[in-house]
């Protein structure tokens, strides 16, 4: 027995030592991939010495003897810090995520292949200007140079994720950067998702369903079923459901994910320091690492500083010594879905304007990690590629024997958007910037500009041309065999939708464009109105007032809806006894009556308001939409406002059709509030004063590859309570479904405020940190600053960059002594 015990102790000690050795080994190989920022390399591909000066926040300042060398070093710096992210973004655009993630990524791969993101990117390479092609080639060589250094120096495969997701890192190609820009464009627009929702609403609630998503004054759409007389349409009575958020973000970006931004500027005469001010905060899905990366590069045209996306060799939002710019995804209808009829008995033909026509087809193979290869047939019509019914809920709206084709401006093989973005960096004033942006195709952008002469707002990108008698004006899927529904081509955005020297010297953008066609979504006007109020309420602005506006957390939707929804509820009942539902309602209404709409994480009022509006919208639509109501993952404030104002009889939504009595909007509002308070009190107790918005509303910045792994997720994911909401200027968009629908999953992953009076006082921030390495101190060192609405400074002065240097990477041409 004593011998057995001794051997048991020895075995236990041995297992412990083995476990410790294994942890040390894993740790050693993981930290091997941390780059040394204070090192020198001899590298082929550059014509002279290059310096990458890293500041305290790990921001690279890149200096070289030629533009080509600078773009080379930018590629190397991106790869040093974000190599795994770059390769995943490339895979997402190529439709090759399943090779590392397994079968769960096949739907995303199938959609990317069918949209032709990578194929169209390769086709558009030759359309770029020669100088842009040279920049893309130099950038690719810089990425590859770092991959070679990783291999030569056994630097832990370049990123620790590669140990868990085995991947042979293919060399970077110029078309890879174009493909990531295509993926960004596909992710920014949500038009095809909206078309599917409109069709489903029309089928489930033919009489009033469109009111949920219509903008004020928008022409009524025909009933979707009437577009296909005699066709067999399955009633979409079951909700399509929503995928897990981490699955959606497997590639950091995904088509139809959605993006937004605020961009605003005032001219010099409206500022205290006598120079124009501009602020910008592109809003995408929050990930760890974040999508954005701060950079400063010195080109022959001068220094440029701001935010980049790893994989794209352009500063998308930033400034040079004379011009500042910011981007806002434009809400234009740049996508149309067409319903194509397949010839009965011959799946290779579809109906066209001239009769039955052959699909253009090709076959591609999807490789799957730990699985068999899958060969898919890609079909295309004259309207665009065919999308199977498994994508975006298309199966719920397709008549039997029909398929859906997608027309998108981003499919253009002559897309010169990269040329436009690199030209924007070199522009010296608003006029040359607008000229460069005239080459933009996709994504469509509202670009805010500022220079010493004033400010401007330019709509850049192509718009589809539709016939005046188009059956749905592009708002819903339409029969693809009718010539009247087909695109007549695409055209650059008209100059009439841009403003070069606006009256009053101010511009503001949230993406809403009232005159750009049917893509305009009137609900976003709440945020735009609030932004304009913040700008117009002061005659003279400073950098600090712009920072305050960019971080404004007052909800214009709460201010608009609460007086309407609660009009007949404020202080109308006799005081109720403590502990009763009636008293809980009265206390909640008393709090809301004195609330200014600030969505502070420390207050209970935002929690009560958000839960009330969500319960209210669900009660208004549930009886008519049924399970389709489960798929509404956002609040439609314009709809609620029209209902409670009774616009065009919209108050009919308040009556529950299945009940005998005729319910009033006041009754529905009270019932919704009671239901919301019951749910919240069950989770947080009956003391309303102790509730905090931050207990429900926190930003979860998830690592797309490691975020679902039980132990590792605590290291790589970032979880922070945040203020703001869906409609605040400091936008913190909700998930909209699941156990906590108020989880903040979208926000301003990059913020910048640019002061042309004192350019070096301009400030910047990203949502996580510069490094994508979970063990780096720069992985999340900006997260707390970002959450608090704080910034870091970045200067174009080389001396200041060197003074703040924490490391200098020196690149020397190979072969020199």
Automatic annotation (TrEMBL):
The chain crosses the membrane at residues 7-30. One of its GO terms (molecular function) is metal ion binding. Pfam families: Penicil_amidase. PANTHER family: ACYL-HOMOSERINE LACTONE ACYLASE QUIP (PTHR34218:SF4), PEPTIDASE S45 PENICILLIN AMIDASE (PTHR34218). Ca(2+) binds at residues 195, 333, 336, 521. Belongs to the peptidase S45 family. It comes from the Bacteria. One of its GO terms (biological process) is antibiotic biosynthetic process. It comes from Paracoccus halophilus. Its cofactor is Ca(2+). This is Penicillin acylase. Keywords: Calcium, Hydrolase, Membrane, Metal-binding, Transmembrane, Transmembrane helix, Zymogen. Binds 1 Ca(2+) ion per dimer.
């Amino acid at each position: 027995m004593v011998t057995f015990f001794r051997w048991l102790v020895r075995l236990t000690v041995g297992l412990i030592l083995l476990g410790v050795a294994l942890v040390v080994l894993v740790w050693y190989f993981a930290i091997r991939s941390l780059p040394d920022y204070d090192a020198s390399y001899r590298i082929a591909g550059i014509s002279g010495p290059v310096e990458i000066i890293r500041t305290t926040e790990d921001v690279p300042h890149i200096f070289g003897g030629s533009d080509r060398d600078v773009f080379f070093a930018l590629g190397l710096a991106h790869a040093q810090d974000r190599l795994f992210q770059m390769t995943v973004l490339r895979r997402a655009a190529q439709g090759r995520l399943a090779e590392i993630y397994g079968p769960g990524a096949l739907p995303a791969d199938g959609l990317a292949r069918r949209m032709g993101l990578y194929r169209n990117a390769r086709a558009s390479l030759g359309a770029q200007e020669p100088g842009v092609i040279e920049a893309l080639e130099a950038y690719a060589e810089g990425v590859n140079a770092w991959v070679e250094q990783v291999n030569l120096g056994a630097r832990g495969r370049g990123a620790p994720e590669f140990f868990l997701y085995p991947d042979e890192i293919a060399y970077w190609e110029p078309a890879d950067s174009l493909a990531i820009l295509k993926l960004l464009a596909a992710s920014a627009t949500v038009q095809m998702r909206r078309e599917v929702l409109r069709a489903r609403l029309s089928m489930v609630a033919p009489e009033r369903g469109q009111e949920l998503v219509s903008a004020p004054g928008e022409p009524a759409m025909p009933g979707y079923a009437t577009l296909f007389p005699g066709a067999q349409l399955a009633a979409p009575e079951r909700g399509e459901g929503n995928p897990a958020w981490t699955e959606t973000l497997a590639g950091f970006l995904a088509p139809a994910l959605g993006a937004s931004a605020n961009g605003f500027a005032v001219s010099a005469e409206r500022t205290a320091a006598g120079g124009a001010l501009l602020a910008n905060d592109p809003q995408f899905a929050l990930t760890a690492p974040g999508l954005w990366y701060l950079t400063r590069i010195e080109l022959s045209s001068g220094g440029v500083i701001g935010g980049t996306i790893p994989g794209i060799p352009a500063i998308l939002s930033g400034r040079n010594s004379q011009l500042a710019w910011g981007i806002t995804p434009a809400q234009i209808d740049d996508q149309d879905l067409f319903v194509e009829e397949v010839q009965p008995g011959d799946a290779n033909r579809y109906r066209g304007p001239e009769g039955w026509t052959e699909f253009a087809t090709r076959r591609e193979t999807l490789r799957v990690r730990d699985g068999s290869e899958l060969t898919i047939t890609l079909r295309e019509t004259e309207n665009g590629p065919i999308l199977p019914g498994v994508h975006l809920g298309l199966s719920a709206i397709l008549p039997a024997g029909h398929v859906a084709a997608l027309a998108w401006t981003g499919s253009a093989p002559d897309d010169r958007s990269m040329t436009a973005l690199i030209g924007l960096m070199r522009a010296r004033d608003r006029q040359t910037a607008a000229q460069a942006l005239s080459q933009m195709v996709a994504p469509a952008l509202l670009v805010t500009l500022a220079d010493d002469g004033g400010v401007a707002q330019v709509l850049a990108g192509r718009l589809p041309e539709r016939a005046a008698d188009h059956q749905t004006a592009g708002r819903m899927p339409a029969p693809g065999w009718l010539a009247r529904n087909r695109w007549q081509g695409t055209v650059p955005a008209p100059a009439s939708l841009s403003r070069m020297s606006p009256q009053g010297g101010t511009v503001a953008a949230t993406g809403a464009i009232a005159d750009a066609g049917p893509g305009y979504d009137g609900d976003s006007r709440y945020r735009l109105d609030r932004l304009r109020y913040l700008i117009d309420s002061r005659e003279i602005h400073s950098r600090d007032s712009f920072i305050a506006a960019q971080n404004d957390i007052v909800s214009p939707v709460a201010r608009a809806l609460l007086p309407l929804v609660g009009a007949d509820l404020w202080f109308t009942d006799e005081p109720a006894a403590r502990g009763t539902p009636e008293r809980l309602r009265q206390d909640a209404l008393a709090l809301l009556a004195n609330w200014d709409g600030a969505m502070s994480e420390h207050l209970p009022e935002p929690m009560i308001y958000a839960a009330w509006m969500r319960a209210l919208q669900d009660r208004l639509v549930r009886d008519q939409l049924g399970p389709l109501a489960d798929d509404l993952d956002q609040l439609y404030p314009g709809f609620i406002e029209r209902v409670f104002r009774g616009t065009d009889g919209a108050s009919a939504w308040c009556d529950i059709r299945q009940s005998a009595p005729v319910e009033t909007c006041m009754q529905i509002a009270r019932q919704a509030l009671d239901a919301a308070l019951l749910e919240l009190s069950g989770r947080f107790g009956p003391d309303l004063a102790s509730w905090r918005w931050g207990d429900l509303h926190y930003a979860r910045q998830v690592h797309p590859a490691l975020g679902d792994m039980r132990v590792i997720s605590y290291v790589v994911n970032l979880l922070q309570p945040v203020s703001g909401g869906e409609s605040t200027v400091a936008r913190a968009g909700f998930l909209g479904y699941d156990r906590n629908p108020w989880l903040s999953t979208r926000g301003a992953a990059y913020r910048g405020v640019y002061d042309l009076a004192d350019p070096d006082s301009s400030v910047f921030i990203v949502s996580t940190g510069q490094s994508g390495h979970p063990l780096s101190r720069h992985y999340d060192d900006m997260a707390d600053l970002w959450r608090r609405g704080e910034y870091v400074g970045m200067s174009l002065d080389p001396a200041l960059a060197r003074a703040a240097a924490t490391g200098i990477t020196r690149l020397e041409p190979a072969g020199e002594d």
